[in-house]
Design a protein that fits this description.
Helix content: 25-40%
CATH architecture of the largest domain: 3-Layer(aba) Sandwich
CATH superfamily of the largest domain: Mur-like, catalytic domain
CATH class of the largest domain: Alpha Beta
Strand order of the largest sheet: 7-8-6-9-12-13-14-15-16
Structural class: alpha/beta
Number of domains: 3
Strand content: 15-25%
């Protein structure tokens, strides 16, 4: 670790974890923390920090916290804090070290870390890897940028089992040296353009999980069907990394041959280094067949035998809020999914379209939402994806993050209508939008409620009431 004193910027879940980790290691007097708002939903945690002697600034740009004597030497940022925040710009001018909470956790944790990143599928792949590693006796835990485990810096330093870490591009921006023991990249698609501005810049940030100057990750698992992953695979092979690829491409070591699904299950046939494999899963859709192969490849690279991996995957349910079937006895089907990027919407609706096509006179309705600034540049493509595959599209509000619903949902509507789909409307209140889809659903129809998954806090805002 760089020397302290330390300033933690951003006091969400990751920032709170980082502050406690630093106080545990270096003492409370060596740590201070700040947040541009006063996150009342974290008020109890902030009080805990103050009681243990950490100086906390809220409703602050952080400049006072940075300059208070003795001056800070290292900044630990929460993933959501952009580098153009005033306190980070000042720290950069002063030549101070800035690292993300993820890098802090990596520096403090001696355990084996298998990291998973990508635009879509991260949580599902992590869940499958944890299941297989658990069956293999590796005492795994999921951590990182996930709703299903703690931030990496909150994992106890004495932990010896495998840590499966879900990693976002926001975290990687602030990781100058992080290099895990193994890393998987599920895909690179349109997402976070409000932060990264271009797809090339977004992909470059993902690359940081695999390459650090002359160093490369020892084990890399990559999507053979994604051109950016193929380019990275070639680069890593030259750096003597062990590279395992998955997908339909002929070059894939774990090659998908065929797959099929119902609303609640799936199956796939694949060629693997150990021979042909047929695998039953609880995960519908072609994209989930790809996720299962990614997990299979990563676990194989970690030394788990294919029989154990297959047994774990076959009995592991999907992640909450990912292609989750909602059954309250209604004569139509309702699916809730976290899909909030063009690629994810296409993947989910493609899976549902195949099911609807097998039913006589059934239709597919998609309720979609965009979350304000995080969807800059991709709202219209999201609408296009829904308009192409759904018979009816209802655009609604999510977490607007200061944007009006006219902007966020309006762009979704424009994209959907550009496909020639005439059954497109805007209903600002999410609860009302879902109700409108339910009210006209007929037996055999399918409703896809997308964008929130199992995380209703993402929908809280002026037009999102968090209700599904």
């Amino acid at each position: 670790m760089p020397p302290g004193p330390y300033l933690v910027v951003g006091l969400g879940v990751a920032g709170i974890a980082a502050t406690h980790a630093l106080a545990d290691r270096y003492g409370s007097s060596s740590v201070r923390a700040c947040d541009a708002s006063n996150p009342r939903w974290m008020s109890d945690e902030l009080e805990r920090l103050r009681k243990r002697g950490v100086a906390v600034w809220t409703d602050s740009d952080g400049l006072d916290a940075l300059s208070a004597p003795p001056g800070c030497c290292c900044i630990v940022k929460s993933p959501g804090v952009p580098f153009n925040a005033p306190v980070l710009e000042r720290a950069t001018t002063l030549g101070l070290r800035i690292i993300d909470e993820l890098e802090l956790g990596w520096r403090l944790l001696p355990a084996t870390i298998a990291a998973v990143t990508g635009t879509n599928g991260k949580s599902t792949v992590c869940a499958l890897v944890v299941a297989a590693a658990g069956l293999a006796g590796m005492d795994p835990i999921v951590a990182g940028n996930t709703a299903f485990g703690p931030p990496l810096s909150a994992v106890p330093a004495e932990r010896s089992g495998l840590v499966v870490c879900e990693v976002s591009s926001y975290q990687l921006e602030g990781c100058p040296e992080l290099l895990p023991d193994a890393a998987a990249l599920t895909n690179v698609g349109l997402d976070h353009l409000g932060r990264h501005r271009t797809l090339a810049a977004y992909a470059a940030v993902k690359r940081k999980l695999f390459v650090r100057g002359s160093r490369a990750v020892p084990l890399a698992v990559l999507n053979a069907d994604d051109p950016r992953c193929r380019s990275l695979a070639a680069e890593l092979a030259e750096d003597n990394s062990t590279v395992l690829r998955f997908g339909r491409n002929q070059d894939a070591e774990f090659r998908l041959l065929d797959c099929g699904w119902t609303l609640s299950s799936g199956w796939l046939e694949a060629q693997t280094p150990a021979g042909p494999l047929r695998l039953n899963t609880r995960l519908p859709g072609t994209y989930n067949a790809s996720n299962a192969l990614a997990a299979l490849a990563l676990c194989h690279g970690l030394g788990i035998d294919l029989e154990t991996i297959a047994a774990a995957i076959e009995r592991t349910p999907g992640v909450p809020g990912r292609f989750e079937v909602i059954d309250e006895g209604q004569p139509f089907d309702v699916i809730v999914d976290f899909a909030h990027s063009p690629g994810a919407i296409l993947a989910v609706l493609h899976a549902l379209r195949a099911i609807v096509a097998q039913r006589r006179s059934s239709s597919l309705c998609a309720v979609i939402a965009a979350s304000g600034v995080h969807s800059d540049g991709i709202r219209r493509p999201m609408g296009v994806a829904a308009g192409r595959l759904a018979d009816r599209v209802i655009a609604t509000g999510g977490n607007q993050r200061g944007y009006s619903v006219t902007i966020t949902a309006g762009e979704l509507v424009a994209g959907a209508r550009s496909t020639g789909n005439r059954a497109v409307e805007l209903i600002a209140q999410r609860r009302v939008a879902i109700g409108a889809a339910v009210d006209v659903a007929r037996p055999g129809d399918v409703i896809a409620i997308l964008g929130g998954g199992a995380m209703p806090r993402l929908l809280n805002g002026p037009t999102g009431d968090g209700e599904q």
